[in-house]
Amino acid sequence: MTNHIVLFEPVMPANTGNIARTTAGTDAVLHLIEPLGFELDDKHVKRAGLDYWEHVQLVKHDSLPDFLDTLRETDHLYLVSKFANYDYTQPDYSVTDGDHYFLFGKETTGLPEVFMRQNPDKAIRIPQDDTHIRSLNLSNTVAIVLYEALRQQSFPNLETTHTYEQDKLK
């Protein structure tokens, strides 16, 4: 079982950079659905300070249908959106019969409304006060949802404790 973070047409390179760092640090796979609002070449990546980019497991897709065609019948797809009736803590992410894919919408417009209306049972949300803000920051949202999945999975292959170097010498 692997966790996958899927970004639909991301437009803000800083968000994608933060999310890439999160996926590199959690052994999650990062999927980017084109078109992107920025370049992924070495010059842009280095300028953003992404010195960990070589550790990012990156998969690019030409379109949403292209991405959906890669899913297996046993995989679990979650659409993360404010237009959802289920709390992000409700699904059982410890299920191991397939991979878990968390699909996040474009920062400016979210996921396509038609697609969301066709899949309301897959939609999850982080509770928020919708009267004061339109949405939470994308990179924060990814971290919240991914770490809930990892918590339910008992943080597989991740350090849950860490020791200061000087303490290791004692």
Could you describe the 3D structure shown?
The chain is α/β, with parallel strands linked by helices and 170 residues long. 29% of the residues lie in helices and 18% in strands. The protein has a 7-stranded parallel sheet. Helix 1 runs parallel beside helix 5 (138-152). The longest helix has 15 residues, at 138-152. The termini are far apart.
In short:
The protein has helices at about 15-25, 40-45, 65-70, 115-120, 140-150, 165-170, and strands at about 5-10, 30-35, 55-60, 75-80, 85, 100-105, 125. The protein has about 170 residues and is of the alpha/beta class. The mean pLDDT is about 90.
**Order of strands in the sheet with most strands:** 3-2-1-6-4-7-5
* Silhouette: globular
Unreliable residue stretches: none
SS field, number of helical segments: 6
Along the chain, the helix and strand elements come as: EHEHEHEEEHEHH
Q: Could you tell me the strand content as a percent range?
A: 15-25%
Strand count, sense and closure of the main sheet?
Answer: 7 strands, parallel
Mean pLDDT value? 92
Helix content: 25-40%
What structural class do helix, strand and pairing data support?
alpha/beta
Gyration radius (Cα, Å) is 17 Å
Distance between the termini: 38 Å
Per DSSP E runs of 2 or more residues, the count of β-strands stands at 7
Binding site for S-adenosyl-L-methionine: 80, 105, 126, 135
Organism: Leuconostoc lactis
Domain tRNA/rRNA methyltransferase SpoU type: 4-147
Function: Could methylate the ribose at the nucleotide 34 wobble position in tRNA.
